[in-house]
Design goal:
Pfam families: Mutator. It is built from five helices and six strands. By secondary structure, the protein is α+β, with helices and mostly antiparallel strands. Helix 1 packs across helix 3.
């Protein structure tokens, strides 16, 4: 990077800054050599490295603390930093969804194997040698359903291993999809999208069905 082939024995110290291309929190800087005119681009992070990129790391943080693109933009403005455009945020969010989903399933499978192993070591097996795993199950809703309107639009059932205290399974039920809802209101055909609506029954039945799954 510090020396480029030009015939003039130029180095990076002979180059001057030209421009910066922003992509969310990731930047690509362009430099031009004052001696030979060669242009060089330098990124703010190693794009070939196998690690979580800055944009994915930031988006992962927004998901973890429950904020969206608008709140992220306000936070970045307070830090006097550029933020992600809504299109960039949506694209990164879509790619992160698959990664988070796959990672979650991998960890739950590992937890299940560990729970099974501990049950066998403790002698908790049936007559056929199958592990009898003690678990704790609970359900959650986006809003309170019992003793209220019983109208939660989403809910989650979680199964946790008694021995490992690790999550073994998560069953998610959604009764609402904003894309489908808007299409129905406008009486138009639904556009192609990733629809997360998978439940048409009552909110109170979400917990039981998730545990059964």
């Amino acid at each position: 990077m510090f020396r480029h082939e030009s015939g003039f024995d130029c180095t990076f110290s002979d180059m001057e800054y030209v421009s910066e291309k922003l992509n969310g929190y990731f930047s690509t800087f362009e430099f031009k050599c004052k001696m030979c005119g060669i242009k060089m681009r330098i990124s703010s992070e190693n794009i070939k490295a196998d690690y979580l990129t800055i944009n994915k790391a930031v988006l992962n943080g927004t998901v973890a603390i429950g904020i969206g693109q608008r709140q992220l933009t306000e936070f970045s403005a307070a830090l006097e930093m550029p933020s992600m455009a809504n299109t960039t945020y949506s694209r990164v969010h879509k790619s992160m969804h698959s990664s988070i989903h796959d990672s979650a399933w991998t960890e739950m499978l590992k937890a299940g194997e560990e729970e099974r192993r501990l049950a066998i070591e403790d002698g908790d097996v049936d007559e056929d040698g199958n592990a009898l795993c003690t678990v704790v199950a609970d359900g959650q809703w986006g809003i309170r359903s019992y003793k209220s309107k019983y109208d939660a639009l989403s809910g989650v059932a979680t199964i946790i291993g008694y021995r490992t205290k690790k999550v073994l399974f998560v069953g998610i039920r959604n009764r609402y999809c904003v894309v489908c809802h808007r299409a129905a209101l406008k009486q138009i055909e639904k556009p192609k999208h990733s629809c997360f609506k998978n439940w048409n029954k009552s909110a109170t039945s979400i917990e039981a069905d998730g545990v059964v799954e």
